[in-house]
Amino acid sequence: MAGLMEIRSAIVTGAASGIGLATTTTLLEAGWQVAGFDRDGNALAAAMQNLSAYHGRVRLHPLDITDEAASKAAISEIMDGFGPLRGVVTSAGIASNTSFFDTTPDLMRRMNDVNVIGSFLTARIAAETMRDNGGGAIVLIASVSGLVGNRGRTAYGASKGAIVNLTRIMAVELAAHRIRVNAIAPGPIDTAMARQVHSAKVRAEWCDKVPMGRYGTPNEVAQAARFLLDEQQSGYITGQILAVDGGFSIAGLNGGDETA
Ligand code: NAI
């Protein structure tokens, strides 16, 4: 069992923006050391300015998560001198709102390259380290679009559906190595990605379909990730898909009703 005073370290991908940035901040607040990766170097530099209070416990590094060799090099370089790797959150991802007939093989490939293969690569490289150093926890960021058939999500939803079952498979295989693997399926979260993909009409539809009637915040997803990484709080939870979605994925009839 890890000593109480051990300073744990975590890897966060997509750390420059949205859910990844909020997760980085939340983990730093909870005392973790955080190695954050993102392909957007300028956004990383801006994020670093805002995280200067955590100087020494946070390292941010440009990385394209689809590049295996660069990922291996960056992860081993950045972890040097940090405490044992105990957590990974794969938030880097891309989205598209494209109808089935407009979805090209190229879009399918790009989406899967980043969302599936990129997340898998980060998780595998990190899991090798955790396997050899006392275990840890992985949180993959999926989406409610990987749970239900949302219109316009042929490429995106298929990639997130793959993440959902990858989570279960990894949980089963890695349990013996003391690595827990869970996923978060966010509903609509107010980030740069959502602002880019959701028109005003789509925004209104989400607010209508989400029982809580609003978008979530990046921090609300980050708090769930912190919980799922924390051995003390979620030590017997693995293979689960936690929807952070204001009730979207469990809702049936919702609205236009006299009982409200
Ligand atoms: P965001 O666009 O604010 O942040 C995503 C970050 O990933 C960006 O900083 C981007 O530069 C980085 N990134 C993209 N491709 C990369 C690559 N190949 N290598 C390294 N970094 C890369 O988006 P947001 O909303 O924070 O999304 C984070 C995750 O949450 C994504 O996986 C997304 O699919 C998922 N999600 C978001 C929802 C939302 O409504 N915002 C809903 C459900 C899931």
Question: Quick summary of this structure?
Answer:
With 260 residues, the chain is an alpha/beta fold. It has helices at residues 18-29, 41-50, 68-79, 105-131, 154-174, 192-197, 200-209, 218-229, 231-234; strands at 9-13, 33-38, 58-62, 85-90, 136-141, 179-186, 241-244. The model has no long low-confidence stretch (mean pLDDT 95).
Question: Strands, helices and their partners?
Answer:
Layout: E1 9-13, H1 18-29, E2 33-38, H2 41-50, E3 58-62, H3 68-79, E4 85-90, H4 105-131, E5 136-141, H5 154-174, E6 179-186, H6 192-197, H7 200-209, H8 218-229, H9 231-234, E7 241-244
Parallel strand pairs: 1-2, 1-4, 2-3, 4-5, 5-6, 6-7
The chain binds 1,4-dihydronicotinamide adenine dinucleotide.
Structural summary, described in words:
One of its GO terms (molecular function) is oxidoreductase activity, acting on the CH-OH group of donors, NAD or NADP as acceptor. The protein is an alpha/beta fold. It has one domain: 3-Layer(aba) Sandwich (Rossmann fold). Helix content is 44%, strand content 15%. It is built from 9 helices and 7 strands; from the N terminus they run βαβαβαβαβαβααααβ. Helix 4 packs parallel to helix 5. The mean pLDDT is 95. The protein binds 1,4-dihydronicotinamide adenine dinucleotide (NAI). The site of 1,4-dihydronicotinamide adenine dinucleotide has 31 residues, from helix 1, helix 4 and helix 6.
